[in-house]
Amino acid sequence: MLPLDPLLACLASCLPDSLRPGVAGLLPLLQSGVAAGSVSAHLPDGELRRRLASGDPWGDARRILEWCAGNGVRILYPGHPDYPARFSRFHEGSAAGSSEGASVLFVRGEPPWRSRIGLGIVGSRSPTAAALAWMDAHLPPVLSNPGVYSISGGARGVDQKAHALSLRVGCPTVAFLPSGLARIYPAEFIAWADAVVASGGALVTEYPPSEPMRKCHFHRRNRLIARLGAVCLVAEAARKSGTLITARYAKEAGVPVAVLPASPLEPKAMGSLDLLFEGAQPLRDARDLGEFLALNARLDGG
Question: N or C terminus of the chain: which is more exposed, having fewer CB within 10 Å?
């Protein structure tokens, strides 16, 4: 677990997953008066020592910290009072050096997970008209509940539909990004940022501000979407899709998965049918979703 120190959290965000656990051991050195630039000389020989002794990692960390302070971005890490409890649980259960646990979160906005129940919503970037029509008809009654907030990834299709419906009914929404907050991806989502924050929600990422979108970031981002909510709703999933991977992450973490059934003649929904055969909860309407969310919110302790 990282210490309660924003500068070290920024430093950790610049390091590979395998080196992040070692950052916790730097705090006693700094507290004892060792200058940041001299810390590496006090470490045993190894990759962390070599990384800290090369380039300007402390300068990079300070620049990230300054950018966040100047742009209203909060830095959360395990042990911070606003760090999601759900993430702390799977972080602590991960092996050292694993990417399973989120080490650092950069957050623009207010974390609604402190007082509301999260509903993760995922699906295709090119959903069918039927999936969108179901969302239009049955998500607003659930999202209108004052104790609920939504979680998705800002992508075109189902993600943006989920964010849009949330904003329409005044529900806080959280968008997890596959890029840094200074390089929001997709670029069209930049126009959504102020509305998301104004809703009482937030833009959230694991990546330092200037980090661009990379293909490998999507799987990492998806595991956070899957695990933050009390329920993960799959609006539509094809086989071999990112949505199906997100649902698998949720199941592995013990987060219940709910699925909108579809015709077996629809290729875009074959992954959804697979999830149902594996035991996911089928949904008919808003009542089903609301009851399933309430049930699992109670089981998680609210």
Answer: C
Q: What is the tens place of the pLDDT at every residue in 194-253? A: 999 999 999 999 999 999 999 999 988 999 999 999 999 999 999 999 999 999 999 999
DSSP state of 268: G
Reading the block at residue 246, the tokens are 């997100």
Instruction: Give the residue extent of every domain in the chain.
Output: 6-73, 109-299
Under 8 Å between Cβ of 253 and 192: no
Distance of CA 178 to the CA centre of its chain: 9
**Which CATH number does 109-299 carry?**
3.40.50.450
Edge-to-edge strands of the sheet including 105-109?
Answer: 73-76, 105-109, 202-205, 173-176, 148-152, 117-123, 231-236, 257-259, 281-282
pTM: 0.91
Between CA 292 and CA 48 the distance in angstroms is: 46
